[in-house]
Sequence to fold (319 residues):
Amino acid sequence: MPVPDISIVVPLYNEAESLPVLTEWINRVMTDNKYTYEVILVDDGSNDGSWNVIEQLASANTSLRGIKFRRNYGKSAALHCAFQVAKGNVVITMDADLQDSPDEIPGLFDMINNGGYDLVSGWKKKRYDNTLTKNIPSKLFNYTARKFSGIKLHDFNCGLKAYRNDVIKAIEVYGEMHRYIPLIAKKAGFHKIGEKIVQHRKRQYGSTKFGLDRFINGYLDLLSISFISRFGRRPMHFFGLLGTLMFLLGTAITIYLGIDKLIAISQHVKARLITDNPYFYIALTSMIIGMQLFTAGFLGELVSRSSASRNEYHIEKEI
Fold:
């Protein structure tokens, strides 16, 4: 079977009403541009009959494939499973709620296929969301993610993205890390990351599945992925360094207290007990915390060395 030009990945949860419109729209765009393609619809545990709609659509369109989860696992899980089976030279992800326009696909495809990009992220510059609950928090979140990651994207949350196939095969999306796929790709060695202004459309059916809690979780995920990508294979470099510094601080204070006590004794000056000095407890606490951090780093190294992915690296070319 020939490799399709494009794989379109659509994670969904309770979007039965929008699926016929979306798949017809995609098919029209693909036909007009003479692309070979496949559509992968991932039903993330819907309970509104979305899977029945997918079965009907798949029976009428051989380019359409469906994956159904037993329960709701989240968008990252849906993308991970779809990425494993996607065969297209270019993989495009989009949401199922019709807020992402399939008319953007040719432009995204061209940027990957002819523009030399590894990944292109959509930027919904003009939005139709509620300004108070989504627009303003989204801007704050994206500003923080942009400064923290060093990737100059305006909309990390945009579901409309395009990838070279080898990008999605080299990365692992888990938890709620789908927001940070550009950062994950960058850490894997893919640095040609671009951005394209795309159309944002009002939701036609159903209601949004996301609330303000996703922004709070987003900040926590950003810290998590930054730490794991930097120290995941060498935890001793983080915990060991902090532990050593804390232990040395405690040791230095202890030496100071000891010398101060000896000087007082040599000068026949009455000095209070070392245990009556508050700095003694600061020193003791620092040394205990330092030992704990060092032990945590050592245990982390043991876990890291036992990991199946400890020698998993991404090879770009081979002669």
Summary: The two ends are 27 Å apart (CA to CA).
